[in-house]
């Protein structure tokens, strides 16, 4: 059997690492935006005399650790041949939530074929992301959609996620080398800096839940936490007068809102630029 699903990408502006004993309660507090650019996965499942998973990303065979973990959660020990073909609309390891989008789109298509509830797909993707170090809060945010504040960590309904109204145009720019989420989250010094600067900003945004406040808090977080590279800071500064910008967590990349054409021109000096909108529709079967 075959099924296809799309999942939005996601950018985080700031966050706090929150580890609990169980995976569904683990995650992050933070804020960010879901993107109309994301990942589409086509899944084929057939009965077999053994279990075999094959994953292709953008046409190339890939170890796809997170997607494989998703399949294990959903299929268990059943003997199935599973082929997943995922197409990404944004670069990986640049803070655009492609790990979560790829895993969740594959999870939704797999759950559809197996006759499982949609929530099972979200649970499988959330747990796989955390197990593999791919991310902490992207799946929770995508579960809610739009511009989000993750007040309580974990996947909803365990986690608590609010939505800020709006669906603005966005400009995304890659300005540096790949940044592996796992390498940052596993660094004790960086993790302490993230939590020291992230927690209070979540509380501040809850008090004033606006896009403008989110962007302001994101900018101060990326600078004060020490996560932003010189290239990222220079790119952000180049957007002055055209809108508001900050670093996409966790990537050597920038997300911006404001005067779209001027932002595109300013950021294209630093690297590849993409435009999209904030996604409010969420993942869907195709």
How would you describe what is shown here?
With 286 residues, the chain is α+β, with helices and mostly antiparallel strands. The chain contains 9 helices and 12 strands. The chain folds into 2 domains: 161 residues, Ribosomal Protein S5, domain 2, CATH 3.30.230; 110 residues, GHMP kinase, C-terminal domain (Alpha-Beta Plaits, 2-Layer Sandwich), CATH 3.30.70.890. 37% of the residues lie in helices and 31% in strands. Strands 1, 2, 3, 4, 5, 6, 7 and 12 form an 8-stranded mixed beta sheet that branches. Strand 9 and strand 10 form a beta hairpin. The model has no long low-confidence stretch (mean pLDDT 95).
Ordered list of secondary-structure elements with their pairings:
Blueprint: E1 2-18, E2 27-47, E3 52-57, E4 60-61, H1 65-75, E5 80-88, H2 98-114, H3 118-132, H4 138-144, E6 147-152, E7 160-164, E8 169-174, H5 181-185, H6 188-207, H7 211-224, H8 230-238, E9 243-247, E10 253-258, H9 260-267, E11 273-277, E12 284-285
Parallel strand pairs: 3-5
Antiparallel strand pairs: 1-2, 1-12, 2-5, 2-6, 3-4, 6-7, 8-10, 8-11, 9-10
Helix pairs in contact: 1-2, 1-3, 2-3, 3-4, 6-7
């Amino acid at each position: 059997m075959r099924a296809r699903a799309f999942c939005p990408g996601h950018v985080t502006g700031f966050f706090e690492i929150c580890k609990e004993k169980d995976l569904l309660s683990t995650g992050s507090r933070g804020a960010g935006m879901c993107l109309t650019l994301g990942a589409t996965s086509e899944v084929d499942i057939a009965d077999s005399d053994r279990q075999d998973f094959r994953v292709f990303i953008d046409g190339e065979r890939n170890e796809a650790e997170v997607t494989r973990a998703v399949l294990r959660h959903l299929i268990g020990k059943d003997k199935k041949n599973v082929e997943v073909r995922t197409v990404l609309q944004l670069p990986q390891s640049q803070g655009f939530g492609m790990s979560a989008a790829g895993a969740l789109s594959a999870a939704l298509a797999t759950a559809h074929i197996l006759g499982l509830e949609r929530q099972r797909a979200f649970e499988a993707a959330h747990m796989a992301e955390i197990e593999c170090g791919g991310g902490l809060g992207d799946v929770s945010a995508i579960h809610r959609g739009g511009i989000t504040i993750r007040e309580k960590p974990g996947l909803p309904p365990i986690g608590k996620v609010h939505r800020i109204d709006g669906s603005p145009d966005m400009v995304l720019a890659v300005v540096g080398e790949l940044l592996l989420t796992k390498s940052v989250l596993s660094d004790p010094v960086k993790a302490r800096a993230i939590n020291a600067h992230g927690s209070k900003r979540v509380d501040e945004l809850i008090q004033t839940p606006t896009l403008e406040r989110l962007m302001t808090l994101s900018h101060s977080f990326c600078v004060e936490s020490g996560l932003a590279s010189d290239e990222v800071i220079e790119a952000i500064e180049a957007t002055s007068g055209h809108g508001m910008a900050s670093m996409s967590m966790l990537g050597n990349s920038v997300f911006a809102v404001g005067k779209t054409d001027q932002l595109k021109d300013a950021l294209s000096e630093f690297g590849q630029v993409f435009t999209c909108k904030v996604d409010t529709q969420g993942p869907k079967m195709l």
